[in-house]
From TrEMBL:
SUPFAM superfamilies: Thioredoxin-like. The lineage of its organism: Bacteria, Pseudomonadati, Planctomycetota, Planctomycetia, Pirellulales. Pfam families: Redoxin (PF08534). It comes from Lacipirellula parvula. Residues 312-347, 616-643 form a coiled coil. GO terms for biological process: response to stress. InterPro entries: Redoxin, Thioredoxin-like_sf, Thioredoxin_domain, Thioredoxin_ResA/DsbE_sf, TPR-like_helical_dom_sf. Residues 497-639 form the Thioredoxin domain. The keyword Signal applies. This is Thioredoxin domain-containing protein.
Length: 646
């Protein structure tokens, strides 16, 4: 195999000639690999010192069905991964790691050598941005959390970037899909229109300059507004009264962010930012009885509770100074700084006037300490979490706070274990699952109990222990029926117990008309759950197209169930793949859509094979295994049809 050079385009592409016979190849150098950087700025990832880089290694590895160049440090911990997801021998995914975990990825999903999607993972966050014109700037947020959206607002103000703010706002198309009454739709449209003006006004005031830093996020918790409320036709998940704390100059300032609504995984704004509480406070919309425009909320003294006290401001200012030091601190200085930050957060909890506020600060402290333990910058933090956990038990704190801290302590211990140079990952994972079992056996309520149950169920599925998976899914449904994951768990139970049964699957087809699996009687049917962003989307489409061409007709058919988050993505994919001729179901929401929850889809691609009687025969086939199973079913169908009547 010839040498494997890295190629660069204007947006940094990496070429991969071939990995078929890597033994004869001259691998790219570690230096070349480590010179590559994320397209988006502000990413914290591991880069070894010049001395350590000399002992790093780069080798081709098989990652699932993909081939990748993987850079590992002297202890074998992964630093970079450059993958070929579609088998064309060209790198199209560039992944960056911190403490062995992927924190950021550039992806070229149209395979033209330029990144068009950017994703954050693990401690890097949850954002997923789409760059339609491939100019290095995000055009649309596919995923973004409320905290990250608030941070983006502050960044847009700081850099005077109206376009950056605009892409956080609800679009007119999104407003139309919320299912609100005409009256509320009109009011919401007017409110979003005013948001850009508010942004421009705040920037012009110059009170938040280029040196301002996002310091904190605030808001009680998101809530669901059920269908039927004030004439609405859909459930909505919303956040009211969100604010961000900003250090502008030497004084912390509170910026009102306003109301947000979750649209297919991305939290979108309806308001422009405003400084402080007082007359600048923003009225709620989704919880408000009329959905009114933002109005003055009374005299400053009436809303003073929204503003941080002088004592709180001093503590927040101190936290920001610690954060500034952490940004450039040497590794050996970080433990003391992280301890100081945790002390300050605990002080904030101590002066909180309301129990909910105290709980919020302690949760933030537990989150911060847990993450610092996991990334190695506060090893002693594990003992601190253990002490806090004991103190809260003695103080009889709320169940939710106690389980939150306990769960973060467990995660910290897990992260510290896997960071050990000779960590036994299999044993650590086994111990982690055992801890999760003990956790859910001990606690019957708390946000993280439902999360732990879902992790146990999913891990059991990945280990092919469907019996255990079903047990955990059933527990989640029984104990946390109102959890966002309850409907998905119900669907997973339906899927895991579906062999020998019929399953519900119907909806509007992208190509027009309706699809109902019950109407496919007499045919063997492949139900294919997929997404155009899946690394195997192209190869799977080609393989299934071959099967459809060879067996399709009166005997065999395919139903595609697309779980992209927007119709544009699947429409483009279908336009690029003219041989995908079978019906495709699509509903907005991706993994949270009705189609995904109905069968509890947790990973893609997923195939379900149905016989000519409409009964499920297999729910866990790889695309490469399909033809043999289809042949068996078709042969059985012919044999049954030719059998003499009794």
């Amino acid at each position: 195999m010839p040498s494997l050079p890295f190629r660069r385009s204007s947006l940094l592409a990496v070429g991969l000639v071939s990995l078929a016979s890597s033994a004869q190849a001259a691998a790219p150098s570690v230096d070349d690999a480590l010179k590559l950087a994320p397209v988006q700025s502000g990413i914290e990832f591991d880069t070894p010192s010049a001395d350590n880089a000399k002992n790093c290694k780069i080798n081709p590895e098989k990652i699932g069905k993909m081939t990748a160049w993987v850079v590992r440090d002297p202890n074998g911990v992964i630093l970079r991964q450059f993958s070929d997801s579609n088998g064309d021998n060209v790198v199209d995914t560039w992944s960056y790691y911190k403490n062995g975990l992927e924190v950021y990825r550039d992806a070229d999903l149209n395979f033209n050598g330029k990144a068009d999607q950017y994703r954050w993972f693990h401690t890097g966050g949850s954002r997923w941005g789409v760059d339609k014109n491939e100019d290095g700037k995000i055009d649309v947020w596919k995923f973004i959390s409320p905290e990250e959206a608030s941070e983006e607002v502050i960044a847009a103000i700081r850099t005077n970037d109206p376009a950056r703010f605009q892409r956080l706002l609800l679009t007119s198309d999104e407003i139309g899909k919320l299912g609100l009454s005409k009256e509320l739709t009109d009011k919401l449209t007017a409110r979003v229109t005013e948001a850009s003006k508010a942004f421009t006004k705040l920037v012009a005031e110059g009170k938040i300059d280029a040196k301002a830093e996002f310091a904190d996020f605030g808001g009680l918790r998101p809530g669901t507004v059920p269908a039927g409320t004030r004439g609405s036709s859909k459930d909505l998940t919303v956040y009211e009264d969100v604010w961000a704390m900003v250090l502008a100059g030497e004084t912390p300032q509170q910026v009102q962010i306003g109301s947000m609504v979750n649209v297919d995984g991305a939290w979108k704004l309806i308001d422009g930012p405003a400084l402080g509480g007082g007359n600048a406070a923003l009225a709620g919309f989704f919880y408000d009885s009329a959905g009114v425009q933002p109005q003055p909320q009374g005299a400053p003294e009436q809303v003073a509770g929204n503003e941080p006290t002088e004592e709180m401001q001093k503590l927040l200012e101190s936290i920001q100074k610690v954060d500034d030091q952490l940004a450039s601190a040497a590794e050996d200085a970080k433990p003391a700084l992280n301890k100081e930050r945790a002390d300050l957060l605990e002080e904030l909890a101590g002066i909180a006037k309301e129990p909910a506020e105290r709980e919020q600060w302690l949760q933030q402290m537990a989150d911060m300490v847990s993450f610092a333990v996991q990334d190695g910058s506060y090893p002693e933090g594990l003992e601190r979490l253990e002490a806090l956990e004991k103190k809260l038990a003695d103080d009889e704190a709320s169940e939710n706070l106690r389980t939150h801290v306990e769960f973060r302590r467990m995660q910290a211990a897990w992260g510290k274990s896997i960071a050990e140079p000779k960590a036994d990952y299999a044993k650590i994972q086994e111990a982690w699952l055992k801890q999760l079992e003990e956790f859910v056996d001990k606690h019957k309520s708390g946000d993280h109990v439902a999360e732990a149950l879902l992790q146990l169920a999913m891990a059991s599925e990945f280990n092919s222990d469907n019996e255990a998976a079903e047990k955990w899914y059933r527990r989640l449904v029984a104990d946390f029926g109102k959890s966002p994951n309850a409907s998905k768990s119900e669907g997973a139970i339906r899927r895991l117990t579906s062999v020998g049964k019929t399953i519900p699957l119907k909806g509007a087809a992208l190509q027009g008309g309706n699809v109902d699996l019950a109407q496919y009687g007499g045919k063997v049917v492949l139900v294919h759950y997929w997404s155009s962003s899946s690394p195997t989307a192209n190869s799977d489409a080609e393989a299934i197209a071959d099967l459809f061409k060879k067996y399709g007709g009166a005997k065999f058919d395919v139903i595609g169930v697309n779980l992209d988050y927007s119709k544009d993505e699947v429409t483009k994919f279908m336009g690029d793949h003219k041989n995908v001729l079978w019906k495709q179901l699509f509903e907005p929401g991706g993994f949270e859509s009705r189609l995904a929850n109905e069968m509890g889809i947790i990973t893609l691609p997923m195939t379900i094979l149905v016989d000519d009687k409409g009964q499920v025969v297999n729910t866990n086939l790889q695309v490469t295994e399909l033809e043999d199973e289809i042949k068996k079913l078709l042969e059985s169908r012919v044999a049954n049809n030719n059998a003499p009547a009794k």
